[in-house]
Amino acid sequence: MNYPFFIFVNFIVSFMSDVFLNDVANKQLFKTRSAILLSLQSYFKEKSIIISGSAAGLTVVLCLVVTTLLSKLIFNYYLPNNLHRLLSFNILAFIIGYIADILIDRFDIFGRSLHKYYQIAGAGFWGAVAFVFSINISYLIIRLLCKFLEKNKIC
Q1: 17, 31, 60, 80, 155 from 110: Cα distances, Å
Q2: C-alpha triplet 23, 96, 46: angle, nearest 5°
Q3: Distance between CA atoms of 59 and 114, rounded to whole angstroms?
Q4: Handedness of CA 38, 40, 44, 50 (dihedral sign)
């Protein structure tokens, strides 16, 4: 798998996920909305879709670089190329995402507008889930592109 392309696809996936969260938090797309999603409204009102999406993308990229470097150190590969490696990579990514989300909360990286979210959702778990989600969706996208387009440059 091509390292820069994997990073790029993760940026796009996390950017789009943030846009989706923005819509879900601020618009009546579903009949019920959770308190966690509603607590994101102040964050999204304070920042434009482009800024918040870019922040999400850059956060994922930074965490992904750390995860790939640790993966190379621990598992002797940067990126997973099969489901067994993806599982190991996900476990490591969950840990990195959990720690990163706690640091984002503790150091107020994205400002006070996320305080309500962290009070309701807590720090760690949902950040880790979002990170692993991005990795898995990106992995799936790239695998499908490789299969159907047969482009070795991205595989």
Answers
A1: 17, 29, 14, 30, 34
A2: 30
A3: 15
A4: negative
Dihedral class, residue 101 (left if φ above 0, else alpha if ψ from -120 to 50, else beta): alpha
Closest by CA position to 89, among listed 109, 107, 103, 75: 75
Q: How many residues does the chain have?
A: 155
Element spanning 32, H or E = none
Q: In whole angstroms, what is the distance from residue 64 CA to residue 131 CA?
A: 8
Confidence of residue 135 (pLDDT cuts 50, 70, 90): very high
For the chain, state the CA radius of gyration.
Answer: 16
pLDDT digits (tens, 9 = 90+) for 72-117: 999 999 999 999 999 999 999 999 999 999 999 999 999 999 999 9
